[in-house]
Backbone:
């Protein structure tokens, strides 16, 4: 499992620390590079956090005007991160830490000097910011059935990724959306693009995806934890975060208020944006979970 500041680690700090820093701490952008890998509009930013000197790289993707597009959705990325928290420990998360953030226009000039606010009533660029994975590479095939049968640790991690993808209806299984550690003894598998999830209309109909269970079994500890997930818990996914413009017009994270509109995922008002899953998307998770547990109880799917 990855450990903070281990030279072979895949994250520079614990997920909790990274989410905290990315969501709320001031930073300085020290470098800007293309993210590569077919991630439309994404940038690799080198950040320094003056408060504690932490230096990390992040994947940054500015949101479309209004805060969401069909394949550019900070709330869906954050939703995928939140769903994995229901049944996995942080060291086993396949989705890297991700937050919604507003970057002031003056600081954003090093990324795009012509940028304008993409949320009404602000003076910043709003988007999704995820921790950059280190010491990883794109696998030729993220799912290796032979290794799944022979390597219990790989089976654990890949089955959990498949389980998450099923629950969130992830429909973007291109190979460049998955990364694995370069260290062959580390069997983790990461999902780095979750913008087409939760039942979106647009996706690649030609190929198969991991929105169906494709592994020979699922980890019993994960299934046991999912059995304890209540509808009330799932309803909490309706509000995943909220940002409001400060005195300088920069969107900053605040304690979320009541759900502004359960039928809409990205809820925008002048100087304010609230993110969450819609009632229909939460209903979808609940239905898929119920159907999964029924298949396991009927002996159609095994656990290990």
Residues:
């Amino acid at each position: 499992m990855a450990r903070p500041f281990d030279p072979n680690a895949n994250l520079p700090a614990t997920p909790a620390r990274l989410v905290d820093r990315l969501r709320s701490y001031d930073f300085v952008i020290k470098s800007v590079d293309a993210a590569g890998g077919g991630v439309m509009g994404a940038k690799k930013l080198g950040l320094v956090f003056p408060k504690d000197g932490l230096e990390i790289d992040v994947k940054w993707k500015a949101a479309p005007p209004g805060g969401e597009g069909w394949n550019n959705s900070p709330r869906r990325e954050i939703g995928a991160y939140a769903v994995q928290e229901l049944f996995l420990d942080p060291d086993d998360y396949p989705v890297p830490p991700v937050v919604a953030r507003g970057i002031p226009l003056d600081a954003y000039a090093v990324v795009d000097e012509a940028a304008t606010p993409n949320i009404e009533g602000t003076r910043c660029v709003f988007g999704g910011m995820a921790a950059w994975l280190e010491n990883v590479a794109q696998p030729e095939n993220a799912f290796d059935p032979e290794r799944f049968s022979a390597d219990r640790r790989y089976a654990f991690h890949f089955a959990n990724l498949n389980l998450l993808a099923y629950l969130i209806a992830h429909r973007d299984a291109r190979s460049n959306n998955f990364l694995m550690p370069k260290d062959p003894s580390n069997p983790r598998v990461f999902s780095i693009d979750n913008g087409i999830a939760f039942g979106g209309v647009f996706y690649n109909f030609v190929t198969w995806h991991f929105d169906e269970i494709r592994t020979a079994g699922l980890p019993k500890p994960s299934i046991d934890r999912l059995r304890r997930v209540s509808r009330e818990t799932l309803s909490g996914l309706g509000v995943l975060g909220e940002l409001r413009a400060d005195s300088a017009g920069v969107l900053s994270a605040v304690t979320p208020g009541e759900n502004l509109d359960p039928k809409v995922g990205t809820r925008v008002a002048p100087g304010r944006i609230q993110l969450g899953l819609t009632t229909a998307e939460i209903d979808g998770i609940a239905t898929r979970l119920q159907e999964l547990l029924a298949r396991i109880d009927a002996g159609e799917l095994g656990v290990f």
Notes: Confidence is low (pLDDT under 50) at residues 1-5. Helices lie at 15-24, 74-84, 105-108, 145-150, 152-167, 220-227, 231-235, 279-297. Residues 89 and 141 are 25 Å apart (CA to CA).
